[in-house]
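[09:14] KT: can someone run the structure on this one? pasting the chain below
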Amino acid sequence: MNRAALVLAGLLGAALLVFAVVATPPPSDAALARFPSTGSTGGAGVGAAARWLAATGRPFRRLAPGDGDPAAGETWLLLAPAAPLDEREVAALIERASAGGLVVWALGPGGEAGQPALARRLGAHRLPGGGERTVGPLAPHPLFDGLSLLAGGAGVTSDAPGASPVLGEADRPAAVAVPQGRGEVLLLAGAELLDNRHIGEGAALSLWVRLSARGPLAFDERHLRRWGAASRAGAPPGTALGLQVGLVVLLLAAALWPRLGAVRPPPREAAGRTTRDYLASLAELYRRSGAEEELAAATWGRLRRRLELQAGVGAALPAEEAARRLGLRSPAAVEPLRRGEAALLRGGAGILLEVSRAAADVEAARRWRGRGR
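[09:31] RB: done, structure tokens below
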């Protein structure tokens, strides 16, 4: 491989690396697909509901890290937060509900273990369960009356005073209303009632209509995931970079791999090339491709099969026995037969030429004997 080609391969590899780095989305964006975020169109996201709210003119907003608490009159949606709320944040949430607001907390897979302070204040417990189920109202509630919804298999309970299961089955409620002063906190086992996977199932859209009818919605995504460890929420660090470096290495390996290329410099006058020149070029091509020995074996195998059909010398016979039997009918063909067998056994460069010549000599000796008869 010449220097110019190596330089070109290096430049192409660098360009590929830069393109892959630029084209790979940040880990934080990829991580949103795993959580009920308004920015996620994945199955677990709530991006479909956010787009529907925007398209129908229903007010909502997304609270990101650094934003304050929802304003008075906003329905506070806390959907499967991964980072725990501290005591001050829990107190603010309970105070908002006590002042007449509605807070919706979907526990999610983390359950009460992921939100110890909030679960302690509301006496919340998540009941494990898998799959999906269709649920209906258990007790009168303005959000669920008359609705049939698709929920996850997990349940939720609360031992807080006045807590009432309002959706699902009595032994595994999907939603529990916990009164707080003039308002309430609505506990959901998970965000399945609201996520993209189920917004088109059952009466999920009616649930969004009823939620938005109470006033503006505030999607609290400040605790949706551990923002300081965004890369851990997505693909493992270095995965994308490792793939990109691997591609570059493959490109360089391909550049350094032996090429068949031009078998010999072309003569100045193409018209002066002879059949011998073309045959020499073809032989060089076979040698470079590593197919010379395979072609030689195929050539010799064809000769042995012809001898089997025409001279009764079995193709599977050992070399010496084949030579003995051939010598009974064509003594002159014995020497080239032994020569070809020896060349085939020896292998190496030039074997195709030697085997081809030996095969031609065997055929010539047999034809000469036939004419003599």
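[09:33] KT: thanks! The chain has two domains: 36-224, 271-372.
[09:34] RB: yep, looked fine to me
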